[in-house]
Amino acid sequence: MKLSLAPIPWFWDRARVFDFYASMAATPIDIVYLGETVCSKRRELRPEDWLEIATALAGAGKEVVLSTLTLIEAESELATLKRIVDNGRFLVEANDMAAVDLLSARELPFVIGPHVNVYNGETLALLARLGARRWVVPTEVSRAQLAALPDRRLLQMQTEVQVYGQLALAHSARCYTARAHNLQKDACAFVCREYPDGLPLATMEDQSFLVLNGIQTRSAAVCNLLAQWHDFAALRMDIGRIVPQSAGTAQIIDLAHAVAVGRLDPAAAARELAAQPATPHCNGHWHGAAGMEQVE
Amino acid sequence: MRQRVELVCPAGSLPALKAAVDNGADAVYIGFRDGTNARNFPGLGFSAEEAALGVDHAHARGAQVLVALNTYPDTERWRAATAALATAASVGADAVILADPGLMAHAVRVHPDLRLHLSVQGSATNRHAIAFYHRHFGVRRVVLPRVLSLAQVLNLVGRVPVEIEVFCFGSLCVMVEGRCALSAYVTGKSPNVHGVCSPASAVRWEETPAGRQSRVGGMLIDRYQDGQPAAYPTICKGRYRVGGHVYYAIEEPTSLNVVEILPELVLGGVAALKVEGRQRGPAYVARVTKVLRAALDACCADPARFVPRQEWLDELNSMAEGRCHTLGAYHRPWQ
Fold this sequence. Notes:
heterodimer, A: TIM Barrel, globular, B: alpha/beta, three-stranded antiparallel β-sheet, 11 helices
């Protein structure tokens, strides 16, 4: 099973993004997804910058995929989408049906991102006919739901599941980071840049709950499926996805890689990651329970 | 020229359907009692027989019946979904409101004469996404998620080969519909698969010295002092602590109400206005339908000089969640 790195969900400045991917080139990650998937106002990196990073990573032997915006409303966002679709070199991850529409019209192969709703074999087969070559499983899909699906390999389609990272739970027209600063989205002053791992939200009982990331809401708990690695072969999983965080991403990749090549026991790796300070873990969705639960 | 915009009202039961039709709805939307739609609440929804009676009642009065079948069925629920589709066709539904692409492909194959609408759960927020559903399934109408500004809504009208339906009143999803896993995360039950958000089985009310508290999946959502009206707890409308402040970090418990921008919607060419609320009773449906019928008639007759009457606003506010309303995303500064 291969390992992939999800697009950076957070708003990091240009230098940090370049540094991050320079360090990723040295890790055993197989596939790197690049691009802004949350907010089109985040333009620290120009399209040329992303292509420069993509070229460098490809040179380091990584498979590079360009990811598209999840919530597309404006014409300017469609224009950016078209540029990504027409990049001429790299595979594209479609995070909205607009991307599927453009990619399939050009008869280009594509990855179904986690924000396109696929829950059954009919939809998978339809998207396979339209050019989908890989499917990133939506966050709430369980092991049992996956097991009930037809074999994706018969559709010439790979399956990718997020194995480590906070879960992307919702997207909105509203920017909750700006709201926390009493700012409107149109005058947000890019306050999300102050939160390289998002802005934590707790209940009134100070129970860690969610993370505000601009228009996106993520789980505060980290979804950690490393201990479930033994499920993956039987479920015909091809790729495990890791979500970037501001610190420790390379170590997580190393641990996951050790598990993937059979050098480390999955349970031991999961325990090691769970021992990191201040990171509650969860795996409920995988077990068909509330996503925030940690089912042993 | 007199404008024509359909008023589409919710019906969770046959009495609610009659209330909507008899008070001036152009169309009602219903769902079956089988978990195949986004209002999978105990005691709500139609049997096949009730749906047939509802279609008869509506058609006899010139109104249409649209059947919402807008969950995303997983493998286990696939048969229930295709069976519901067959039932919708057999009772003479005027259209089905779908979200799942696989189910749409099935509908095109098995029920080629059935008119398809794309549910708000389909998350189509731009012209290319809409074009996808039109190209592959011949979708005739799209219900837009409640995340677009008025300018964005009007920009879509005429640029897409389908009719545009927008929400005009009722509870407000602030997250893009079809792309919200908050309920799944907290309760294990989701709008997408189970047709529920913050299901009653996961909700707990507690009386404490600090006040009346609501919980979903054990998480504290809100707290009310004596006499404060308490809202049904949903995760996106809770009070939380962010950066040392406690506030409605995502959205206040409030309702959507577009009466003040009706002329823009009418003149802009929106085909239909949808009222949220299949979980509401017939009395509520009757009152909301009656007020919105009056407002829409007045607006369509003379959009340029339309002014919302205070009595309409008062009546609608009295029925609104949190007893207050917002234009939501239609009003750009809200974003």
